[in-house]
Amino acid sequence: FPLFLQVTCNCFTISNGEMQDVGVGLYPSMSLLNHSCDPNCVIVFEGCQLLLRSVRGIQIGEELTISYIESLMPTSERQKQLLRQYCFECDCLLCQNQEKDSEKLAGEEHAWKEVKDAVNEVRYPKSKEEWKHALARFQNLLSSNMGRLPDTNIYQLQMLDCAMDACINLESWEEALYYGTRTLEPYRLYYPGFHPLRAVQLLRVSKLQYRQDMFPQALETLKQAYNIMKVTHGTDHSLMKALMEIKEECEAMMRIQ
């Protein structure tokens, strides 16, 4: 049991190129890093290799920090998770000011609670039928909540993300792009500066634009992703190399046209 607790408190969630969880790993030196909800560093993976990247200027003697949890949650939810899993309360400026909490829970409360439940209930569909069922439920909620929930509501945003995933799995590219495009402004709001999740989202949307022959738009979205990813991932990361390949293909297609 003590070993289990040590792993729970000190492990890192290993993610793939699209920041999807694929496993956990122990990295002893990196476990020394403390938490902030507004960290000066991020962690990304290249396979099982952990990379620590700074995302802003760091002063001599300044502590390096990372976020142990998903920062999209409201302050109260972040505090609950940190206390439950890591046994401490965060007192960073973001938590003290409860910054952006009003935007995160904007809209009618009963509507976003229904959306929150729906997203939690349809996690990890495995078959096309399950994806179809999930998408139909999201479409109904998006339609019925029109004007009641802004896309900046975090549960509405999560549902848009899930709807995009469903459409991608069902090869409904045009609809996937519609949902993906709606997520970009909330991502910019909640992941300002240099954040790997925003870079990956921009890259995903650019792929959908490219697939529909929207080459100028895809190129512009790729440039935004590149400007973030060169900081969060570095120019040698495999995801950056994939981005550059799509960029070259876009430029080639634009020359042909």
From TrEMBL:
Kindly list the GO molecular function terms attached to this UniProt entry. Answer: histone H3K4 trimethyltransferase activity
Enzyme Commission number(s) of this protein: 2.1.1.354
The processes (GO biological process) annotated in the record are: methylation
**Which region is the signal sequence?**
none
Q: Which reaction does it catalyse?
A: L-lysyl(4)-[histone H3] + 3 S-adenosyl-L-methionine = N(6),N(6),N(6)-trimethyl-L-lysyl(4)-[histone H3] + 3 S-adenosyl-L-homocysteine + 3 H(+)
Keyword terms: Methyltransferase, S-adenosyl-L-methionine, Transferase
Enumerate the InterPro entries for this protein. Answer: H3K4_H4K5_MeTrfase, SET_dom, SET_dom_sf, TPR-like_helical_dom_sf
Q: Name all SET domain ranges.
A: 1-69
Q: Which GO terms of the cellular component aspect does the record hold?
A: nucleus
Name by which UniProt lists this protein? [histone H3]-lysine(4) N-trimethyltransferase
Q: Which organism is it from?
A: Formicarius rufipectus
Taxonomic placement: Eukaryota, Metazoa, Chordata, Craniata, Vertebrata
